[in-house]
Write a structure and sequence with these properties.
The complex is a heterodimer of chains A (about 400) and B (about 140). By secondary structure, chain A is mostly beta strands. Chain A has 4 helices and 26 strands. The longest helix of chain B has 21 residues. About 5% of the residues of chain B have low confidence. The chains are: A mainly beta (about 400), B mainly beta (about 140). Chains A and B meet through strand 1 of A and strand 5 and strand 6 of B.
Chain lengths: ~400, ~140
């Protein structure tokens, strides 16, 4: 009896220790992205479905340390080969997505990548075919490996944190996104295709794929005093970055490229070169209403090209109504065509506002709806004139914001 | 003898005219212009494809237009036309130039995402220089 129990326990432990994470990604080359000036730019990218333009950055790959991760990559892009290079994850050569050392994936083919999730930390993935061009075109995304237990801790035995913010820096040179540049000849098996790379003069500087007003509308740190806020900083652009935290956040650099630093560095400024990642803890005992500055420098000349800002709003907890009034947000039908019905439960009467943002950060609709009584409530949104694609709806009751994604067919 | 020559001339003329008429089409469907695919609702139709051939001696530049799409809106799908793979199924587009005697294609990719149902996508494939020169292509997808 004891032997059977021990065997069952061993199997359970084995299953737990060897959890499996499956990821499905589709390679696309006819995606569109709306940039900060409202123009549409052609992009390449990794998407998780067929109907939506590939998001930039690509979908997050997330696993716990020790998990077996299996990526099924399907290339649906004629004329272009692609790979998934797992940048910094120390995978074996066969699974590292460098085409001349393993394989590349042709149109309508699948490529499978397998790895054991390494040390908890921040990594990234990108296409390694025609790397210079395909990266700029948009084929990159983040990888977050969490501690073995999946907790809000930087790594096994590391620092616990209350909030987590990814700042994923890149730039766009819109000239590189023209058909004549993107539809290049492919030199089979080569890391760098035999195409002439144009001079790089980025005109949009992005954090999480968003710039200027798009960024201001979407990315911010909202937290509370004495909360530990963990920032994952990633640079996948061709500029070097200087990230400057407000002094009141008491920033400490604790990890780099997926490993803890031997000694923490107390500094408000983090310099990040292309491909690097840093982890920063930030905490304030007093309210903060300020911005994190992200500077972009030309790597050849050292000239500052642009500065982007991420809003920081830290409040004293008891100044904020702690009990959320809004719960159980549901969207139907999803995907939607003509009308999206948004239903939610209110614990007490509240004024409900909502905002719809496209997946690439464009504000579609923003409205303070009206005051609702407690109970089950609903709002109908006319989506008939929305373009097909993914959107995020955020609803606020004045104390918290709840967001959900929906698809317009 | 002279009458025979006239008959022969007329017969030749008829042959040439009829050849010209049958050759008015610059392309022809290879196989069936209707593609039926049945898949488990949790499966995927990764590729339903209809091919066609450039029957001229010149490069052929074809356009396509979506006439109908009744696929369930919960499904995830997109299409490829020769030279370009689209996001979703747009209303129309152009194919890459098809060389003489070479094939082109329209293809559909469908993920029913666990939703049982069926639908049809119909395309009109036409020569933009002569819109009367067209073929209808139909994809019927069933998820059981």
């Amino acid at each position: 009896m004891m032997k059977t129990l021990l065997t069952a326990l061993f199997i359970c432990c084995s299953l737990f220790l060897n959890a499996q994470t499956n990821v499905f990604l589709i390679g696309r080359t006819l995606g569109e992205k709306i940039i900060a000036n409202g123009d549409t730019m052609r992009v390449f990218g990794f998407a998780s479905n067929l109907s939506s333009h590939p998001p930039i950055p690509a979908p997050l790959i997330e696993a716990n340390q020790g998990d077996s991760v299996h990526i099924d990559f399907w290339n649906v892009s004629q004329l272009h080969h692609h790979t998934i290079h797992l940048h910094g994850l120390d995978v074996n050569q066969a699974n590292d997505g460098v085409p001349m050392l393993s394989f590349d994936v042709d149109h309508m083919e699948h490529g499978w990548y397998h790895f054991k999730a390494p040390h908890a930390g921040t990594y990234l993935y990108h296409c390694h075919v025609g790397s210079t061009l395909h990266l700029q075109a948009g084929m990159y995304g983040p990888v977050v490996i969490r501690p073995s237990d999946g907790s809000n801790t930087t790594w096994d035995g590391g620092y616990a944190f209350d909030t987590e913010t990814m700042l994923f820096m890149s730039e766009f040179d819109t000239f590189w996104h023209s058909d004549s540049i993107l539809d290049h000849e492919h030199d089979n098996g080569a890391v760098h295709d035999s195409l002439e790379i144009p001079r790089y003069t980025p005109d949009f500087f992005a954090i999480n794929g968003l710039s200027d007003q798009q960024l201001e509308d979407t990315v911010e740190l909202t937290s509370k005093t004495n909360y530990v806020n963990y920032f994952r900083l990633v640079n996948i652009g061709y500029c070097s970055n200087k990230v400057i935290f407000p002094g009141s956040l008491n920033a400490i650099i604790i990890d780099s490229d997926g490993r803890p630093l031997p000694n923490n560095v107390i500094s408000d400024t983090v310099e990040i070169y292309p491909g690097e990642r840093y982890g920063v803890l930030a905490e304030s005992s007093t309210p903060v209403l300020d911005s994190i500055e992200v500077h972009y420098f030309d790597m050849m000349t050292g000239v500052l090209k642009d500065v982007q800002y991420v809003k920081v709003d830290i409040q004293i907890p008891n100044q904020v109504a702690e009990l959320p009034k809004l719960n159980n947000l549901r969207l139907a039908p999803n995907p939607t065509e003509l009308e999206l019905k948004v239903t939610f439960d209110l614990i007490q009467p509240a004024t409900i506002g909502f905002r719809v943002v496209s997946i690439d950060g464009r504000l579609i609709k923003s409205e303070l709806v009206k005051r609702y009584l407690s109970g089950n409530q609903s709002i109908s949104i006319n989506t008939s004139n929305y373009s097909a694609g993914q959107y995020i709806i955020s609803i606020t009751d004045g104390t918290r914001v709840v967001s959900k994604q929906f698809v317009k067919k | 003898m002279r009458l025979v020559k006239i008959y022969l001339f007329v017969a030749l003329a008829i042959v040439l005219v009829s050849f010209n008429l049958t050759d008015a089409r610059s392309f022809k469907i290879l196989g069936n212009g209707v593609q039926n695919s049945t898949v488990d609702r949790n499966g995927r139709v990764e590729l339903a494809e209809i091919k066609f051939l450039n029957t001229t001696e010149n490069d052929l530049y074809l356009h396509w237009e979506r006439l109908e799409n009744t696929l369930p809106i919960e499904w995830d799908y997109s299409m490829c036309a020769f030279g370009k793979c689209q996001i979703g199924i747009p209303s129309g587009g152009a194919l890459k130039l098809i060389s003489p005697g070479k094939p082109g294609f329209l293809a559909l990719h469908v993920f029913p995402k666990g939703i049982q149902g069926q639908g049809t996508v119909q395309f009109k494939l036409f020569d933009p220089k002569d819109k009367s020169n067209f073929e209808l292509l139909e994809f019927h997808i069933i998820a059981e």
